[in-house]
Amino acid sequence: MTTNCIFFSLIFTFLFQFTSYAQGTALEANIRAAKHVLKVFQKKDIQLDFRDLDRYRWSNLPVFLHERKGVALEDMNEEQKRATQLLLQAALSDMGYLKANWIIWLDERRKEEMKTEGSDVFQHYGQGKFWLTIFGKPSKDSDWGWRLEGHHLSINMTFSEGNIYITPLFLGAHPTVVADGPFAGFEAMYRETQLGNALFESLSEKQKATAVIAKKAYEDILTRTGREAYIKKGEGINVADLSARQQSLVKKIIETYFSNFRKDIATTYLRKIDIKEFKFVWAGTGKFEDGIYYRLQSPQFVIEYDHRNADIDHIHSVFYDLKGAFGELK
Predict the structure, then answer these.
(1) Closest to 278 in 3D by CA, of 257, 260, 308, 263
(2) What gap in Å lies between CA 317 and CA 305, rounded to an integer?
(3) Nearest to 175 by CA among 283, 103, 117
(4) Is the dihedral of CA 174, 10, 26, 133 positive or negative?
(5) Which of 65, 167, 211, 277 is most buried, judged by most C-beta within 10 A?
(6) Is the pLDDT of residue 148 over 60?
(7) pLDDT at 4
(8) pLDDT reading at 239 higher than 90
(9) How many Å from the N-terminal Cα to the C-terminal Cα in the chain?
(10) DSSP string, 260-329
């Protein structure tokens, strides 16, 4: 059986298998799954103190540019890999769970491409180069969290005083569209791409004059890795000034990012969202083939999407809570 067949067999087995770890509230499910992780790993490398500064060192970069603590998938046995998948299921929706695993698979594909191209850094990519770390002691009565991270993926979950905090969340894809093989035509981030583009195309020329802040797509997203978000001031057009149809597109984009998480987590956040507090920003010519950048930002949340270096085959995206990243209220 090929590596890809084994990988997807594992994913779909867990997605459709009834398991007690994902039952109950999201907090209960994460505590059970994280305790199971600690049990099957039986090694200190997987667990750091909640106050360890590494908890804030999130990054989307490959490991040769950003070293990570925790345990890599390539160093896990089968039982440990299954425990990692169960932890993902405890936090993510079915769509978010599949998307995270698709991103991991895409990195394996990219590794093979670089190997064929003769690149000497191919060994730093692939589905084994993703690290799981538990911070603190999983419990209803303590502050704790976990992170799964590697190239193009950073999931940061924090649990504090009965509340759940779900950012920073980084999602990326390269290629944007799979060109060949059994999954030719597949897009891991289809909705994020299509909805953003549809919103821009719906704007009138007058609206674009306010929304467009640069004639060229940015080289990358602006939100910086680490403890503080780079973007603090809102730019662009007020969503409150958009038509009902345009506001509906804004709502769908926001829901797409929140809905990567379990329904009870997403619903808790979405109940507090007023889409009219957001601004919409665009950078680029307006032609998809030239690369696009868009941002939705409110006083609390930032969503960014970018074709890195205007390469439409390479997506970087981030979802960041300006007032509650890592569970730190501001």
Answers:
(1) 257
(2) 4
(3) 103
(4) negative
(5) 167
(6) yes
(7) 56
(8) yes
(9) 50
(10) TB-HHHHHHHHTT--GGG-EEEEES-S-GGG--EEEEE-SSEEEEEEEGGG-TT-EEEEEEETTTGGG--
Asked if residues 252 and 259 have their Cβ atoms less than 8 Å apart, the reply is no
- Of the candidates 200, 216, 226, the one whose C-alpha atom is nearest the C-alpha of residue 295 is 200
Here the contacts of 138-143 (C-beta below 8 Å, separation 24 or greater) are: 138/30, 138/31, 138/34, 138/35, 138/38, 139/31, 140/27, 140/31, 142/50, 143/50, 143/327
What are the counts of helices (DSSP H) followed by strands (DSSP E) for the chain? 8, 13
pLDDT computed for residue 224 by the predictor: 84
The enclosing H or E element of 170 equals: strand 169-173
- Asked if residues 146 and 59 have their Cβ atoms less than 8 Å apart, the reply is no
Q: Are 50 and 134 in contact (CB under 8 A)?
A: no
**Per-residue pLDDT tens over the stretch 182-216:** 999 999 999 999 999 999 999 999 999 999 999 99
Output DSSP code: residue 242: S
Query: CA 110, CA 270: separation in Å to the nearest integer?
Result: 35
d(CA 326, CA 299): 17
Taking CB atoms within 8 Å and a gap of at least 24, the contacts of 209-215 are 210/236, 210/237, 211/236, 211/237, 211/280, 211/281, 211/282, 212/282, 212/283, 212/284, 212/286, 213/281, 213/282, 213/283, 214/283, 214/284, 214/293, 215/283, 215/284, 215/285
Structure tokens at 25: 């509230």
**Which residue pairs, CB below 8 angstroms and at least 24 apart, start in 271-275?**
273/298, 273/301, 274/298, 275/239, 275/247, 275/250, 275/251
pLDDT exceeds 70 at position 326: yes
CA gap 281, 106 in Å, rounded:
28
Q: What is the DSSP string of 56-96?
A: G----S-TTTS---SEEGGG--HHHHHHHHHHHHHHB-HHH
Q: Is the preceding omega at residue 168 within 30 degrees of 0, hence cis?
A: yes
For 23-61, how does the pLDDT look when each residue is reduced to its tens digit (9 = 90+)? 789 999 999 999 999 999 997 899 999 999 999 999 999
